[in-house]
Amino acid sequence: MILPIVAYGDAVLKKKAKDIDKDYPKLDELIANMYETMYGAYGVGLAAPQIGLPIRLFLVDTDPFSEDEDLSEKERAQLKGFKKTFINAQILEENGDEWAFNEGCLSIPDVREDVFRQPKIKIQYQDENFETHVEEYDGLVARVIQHEYDHIEGILFTDKLSSFKKRLIKGKLTNISKGKIRVDYKMRFPAMSKKR
After folding, report:
1. Dist. CA 37–CA 40, nearest whole Å
2. What is the pLDDT along the chain (196 residues), one digit of tens a residue?
3. Considering the domain boundaries, does residue 190 fall inside one?
4. Nearest CA among 105, 92, 91, 99 for reference residue 140
5. Do 24 and 60 meet the contact criterion of CB atoms below 8 Å apart?
6. What is the sign of the dihedral through the CA atoms of 136, 139, 140 and 144?
7. Domain that holds residue 98
8. Which of 2, 69, 90, 104 is the most exposed place for a label (fewest CB within 10 A)?
9. CA 196 to CA 186: how far, in whole Å?
10. Number of domains in the chain
11. CATH no. for residue 28?
């Protein structure tokens, strides 16, 4: 089932999410719905806060990036078929010289900006079966994970922009929060939530 994606301005996007355990209600169904929602919006990652749930759950499928002709053969190979569900994730380390990459977000449609992140991460998480893993990633895979991880920490990519850049996009962000935007996927806007 495709779920509405929460738009910029909703308080859930600024909350630090809580850990869950294997007794979380209908978790398998939730994960399946999140993948369907992400694919329906042509995303490569989706975090639970983006569908209104302040829990430490996000998923990533970088396969669509592997078609990008601007990337090296090595980068495309790394992105091809990378699909994972992260539960109760904690980034243990971030290393390397920060590099810029143009990021966007399903909760902030039509806004793309260069964001600086470190290229290498070490992350501990649980999979769908609640088995614990500690893994290292780099490049674009690491970046997608970092972006989604930020969501469960209550951080948006726009929080990482300079105050000058934030001023330039302020009008767009205000319009998104008011629902004054056209998107081809289901969204829930803060202005609509308040009317209920």
Report:
1. 5
2. 999 999 999 999 999 999 999 999 999 999 999 999 999 999 999 999 999 999 999 999 999 988 888 888 988 999 999 999 999 999 999 999 999 999 999 999 999 999 999 999 999 999 999 999 999 999 999 999 999 999 999 999 999 999 999 999 999 999 999 999 999 999 999 865 544 3
3. no
4. 99
5. no
6. positive
7. 5-182
8. 69
9. 18
10. 1
11. 3.90.45.10
Q: What is the CA radius of gyration of the chain?
A: 16
Distance of CA 90 to the CA centre of its chain: 15
CA distance 37 to 32: 9
DSSP class of 157: G
Query: Token pair for residue 178?
Result: 């008011």
3 state SS of 11: helix
Q: Give which of 2, 3, 6, 4 is closest to 191, Cα–Cα.
A: 6
Report the candidate in 127, 108, 126 with the shortest Cα–Cα distance to residue 43: 108
Catalytic: 148? yes
Distance from C-alpha of 117 to C-alpha of 105, rounded to nearest angstrom: 16
pTM score, two decimals? 0.94
Q: Of residues 67, 94, 113, 148, which has the active-site annotation?
A: 148
